[in-house]
Specification:
CATH topology of the largest domain: Rossmann fold
Structural class: alpha/beta
CATH class of the largest domain: Alpha Beta
Mean pLDDT: 84
Largest sheet: 7 strands, parallel
Low-confidence stretches: 518-539
CATH architecture of the largest domain: 3-Layer(aba) Sandwich
Length: 736
């Protein structure tokens, strides 16, 4: 079918109110109207929806739009029905949320030819009665929205999406347009192969969003940092993403307690509540929506000014798509993510029950996220490189690493060593394996390949594995090395790398960033102090910190307890920021629960009061963060279940938690000063000698409560779970 330029622009103006197209929209629309298949890669905010909505309104018949989210369908159908000169039946959706009367209305409008666009969930598309209905229609084309869901390497894989092509063939072939905002070259290939559209015309817009600012912060005092940030940006709309439903509700409650208008959104809520909260955010009745990744896909709110990731996402694709919801109007958009390596370990642990191939893919995607977070390179350069696009500017001016550049060094010699190693191996290996050889890590996997006998084993042993992984990652970014995604990240040398090897020259690299692993503030009863520490920051008052450490040492000798049991270093550092002079104020400091404050706090607040008076210090009481009520129902139920001596697995299942999440919650209860008795469970599940060894380690050797340090000291016979359980016992008995 041919549509003249005049007709196309007339419909654009009449239906959508626009005078001109954005980017490649016009070319895509003309190609689809002419009957061609199209594969569209366009960043969030680029105007993907118009690429199938306008052709649907121009062409005879009904366009079938396959979309993954019910909320997205409703949002877009409402928007199309709101266009001028159109019948209400012009757009419908068909999914599990409809009752019989509504389904009849949809079918009647479809069969009468009124409906131009039908949104359908992939699950609904597979139902035989719907297939028969669609067979009776004149279908103009199929649009596969959020097409990355087809690929196992995508960040939101849906098995039903892989059946789309066979169902389309059953219903009747018509042109296909596949659209996504996030797809690596590997995912692009998967989509085209699965939909049998390898000959489709590809329309690829730049993934660069120059108006977005990217920053990674240490996950220390996270909740306090978030409240401080939002207070510094009053009235601005924002999204906070969390990985768990429980965390979503906690953060939303915390924001409201602190005078910030916020609602929660996750898949565990009933549909009416989700819809109500989404509308409240879109209508600006609230400023912030705290959500899992269930929220945001296709939401058309152009003035979202910040996107905060409380938890680092599982993939860079997910991160890019979620940050892309900020600044869709081309104006300010701040994207801040909080990162802790502990979160990566948790995500890996949650993968353990999945098939091995899924675990491999998941770990590869996580490694990409970790390297992005820990890198000191331009964040825009890393993101665009991940999506197969080069960014040649030396400084983007809109990420934390470019605004605060890190020291650079000549990596020529080390890159040569990496290339020498790769060329010496008959098989290709992943980054962590190569880095372990160079650092001289004497592990079982290294020995299994006899790589401990390689001349390169330990050649870089004066530097840690982390350093060498940074060199290899930057070698990939600068195209000296290549990562084979289809083979789970195996590293090879590129043609550019071979030329460099033959004719070496200086190469400027940066060392990967070291993250401060502060005490986890993910407890149920968040207690927070004012102020904020970001990368590289230390205590606010070093003189006071030294004095507090002296008091802690004195109390340690007096009470015959390890110093860290009394107060951790991060707790002391918070005291130097907040200057608490009463026990109630002390409880607002990080890691200081009611029990600890009451038992150990008096000499500390007395010292601080004297110090404040002697030095005429004005205390920063204007940014105190209110905590949510101490004993939530969940905490009470966990405590009661333990008092009844229920197996921890049963408690976790009843609370809809993973086992590590339950341990997190119990550790939080203990850190607040309450005593928990897990002896009944420990006696049943752990060998007695292990309990004695772990307990003795924390009592006599440990310099902190770090599980990682404990496992390194105790050796491979002890699991993290065992160490955590005995640590809970120790902290409860000795600290509380």
């Amino acid at each position: 079918m041919q549509v003249t330029t005049e007709e196309l622009y007339s419909k654009l103006k009449n239906f959508f109110g626009y005078d001109k197209f954005k980017g490649q929209q016009e070319e895509i629309i003309r190609h689809l109207i002419a009957g061609g298949d199209a594969f569209v890669l366009m960043p969030t905010g680029g105007g993907k929806s118009l690429c199938y909505q306008l052709p649907a309104l121009c062409l005879p018949g009904t366009a079938i739009v396959i979309s993954p989210l019910i909320a997205l369908m409703k949002n877009q159908v409402d928007a199309i029905r709101g266009l001028s000169h159109l019948d209400q039946g012009v757009a419908h959706f068909l999914n599990s949320s409809l009752n019989k009367a509504q389904i009849k209305e949809v079918k009647d409008d479809l069969l009468s030819g009124i409906t131009k666009i039908l949104y359908v969930a992939p699950e609904s598309l597979t139902k035989e009665e719907n297939i028969q209905l669609l067979k009776s229609l004149d279908i103009s084309f199929y649009a596969v929205d959020e097409a990355h869901c087809i690929s196992e390497w995508g960040h939101d894989f849906r098995p039903e999406y892989r059946r789309i092509r066979e169902i389309v063939q059953d219903i009747g072939l018509a042109p296909i347009i596949a659209l996504t905002a996030t797809a690596t070259p590997k995912v692009q290939s998967d989509i085209q192969k699965n939909l049998k559209m390898t000959e489709a015309k590809v329309f690829k817009s730049s993934f660069n969003r120059p108006n977005l600012y990217y920053e990674i912060r240490d996950k220390s005092n996270t909740r306090r940092d978030i409240i401080k940030f939002i207070r510094e940006n009053p009235g601005k709309s924002g999204i906070i993403y969390c990985l768990s439903r429980r965390r979503v509700e906690e953060i939303a409650e915390l924001l409201n307690v602190n005078g910030i208008r916020a609602v929660a959104y996750h898949a565990g809520m009933d549909a009416a509540t989700r819809s109500r909260n989404q509308d409240a955010f879109l209508m600006e009745e609230v400023d912030v929506i705290v959500a899992t990744i269930a929220f945001g896909m296709g939401i058309d709110k152009p003035d979202i000014r910040f996107v905060i990731h409380y938890d680092i996402p599982k993939s860079l694709e997910g991160y890019y798509q979620e940050t892309g919801r900020a600044g869709r109007d081309g104006k300010e958009g701040q994207c801040i993510a909080f990162y802790s390596h502990k979160d990566i370990l948790k995500l890996e642990k949650f993968m353990q029950n999945r098939p091995l191939s899924d675990q491999e893919i998941g770990k590869q995607l996580l490694n990409e996220t970790m390297s992005y977070a820990e890198s000191n390179q331009c964040r825009r350069k890393i993101l665009l490189n991940y999506f197969g696009e080069d960014y040649d500017e030396p400084n983007c001016g809109a990420c934390d690493n470019c605004l605060h550049p890190w020291a650079r060094f000549d990596g020529q010699k080390d890159l040569m060593t990496v290339i020498d190693l790769i060329c010496s191996l008959k098989e290709r290996f992943r980054i962590d394996h190569l880095a372990s050889i160079l650092a001289g890590v004497d592990s079982a996997i290294i020995k299994s390949y006899n790589h401990d006998e390689s001349p390169y084993f330990g050649i870089g042993g004066d530097k840690p594995v982390k350093y060498w992984t940074g060199i290899i990652r930057q070698g990939v970014i600068f195209h000296y090395l290549e990562k084979d995604i289809e083979r789970y990240g195996l590293i090879s040398v590129t043609e550019k790398g071979r030329r460099f090897h033959q004719d070496p020259h200086p190469v400027k690299f940066t060392e990967d960033r070291e993250f401060v692993e502060g005490e986890d503030d993910d407890d149920d009863e968040f207690t927070a102090a004012p102020g904020a520490r970001h990368q590289g920051d230390s205590a606010g008052d070093p003189a006071l910190l030294a004095m507090l450490k002296d008091v802690r040492k004195e109390q340690s000798r007096k009470l015959n307890l390890p110093p860290w049991i009394i107060f951790s270093d991060p707790s002391l550092e918070d005291m130097t920021l907040f200057y608490p002079v009463t026990i109630d104020e002390l409880k607002k400091c990080q890691g200081v629960g009611e029990g600890k404050a009451a038992r150990f706090g008096q000499p500390f607040v007395e010292l601080i009061a004297r110090y404040v008076e002697d030095n005429d210090i004005i205390r920063p009481d204007d940014i105190v963060v209110r905590s949510v009520p101490n004993k939530s129902a969940e905490r009470v139920q966990i405590i009661q279940s333990i008092d009844r001596r229920l197996p921890l697995e049963d408690i976790a299942e009843a609370r809809h938690m993973e086992f590590p999440e339950l341990l997190d919650a119990i550790e939080s209860i203990v850190s607040s000063g309450l005593k928990i008795n897990l002896d009944y469970y420990i006696r049943q599940e752990l060998d007695e000698y292990k309990v004695e060894d772990i307990y003795a380690y924390f009592r006599e050797e440990a310099e902190s409560d770090s599980v990682e340090d404990a496992m390194a000291a105790l050796g491979p016979d002890y699991t993290e779970e065992e160490v955590r359980l005995v640590r809970i016992k120790f902290l409860s008995e000795i600290g509380n």
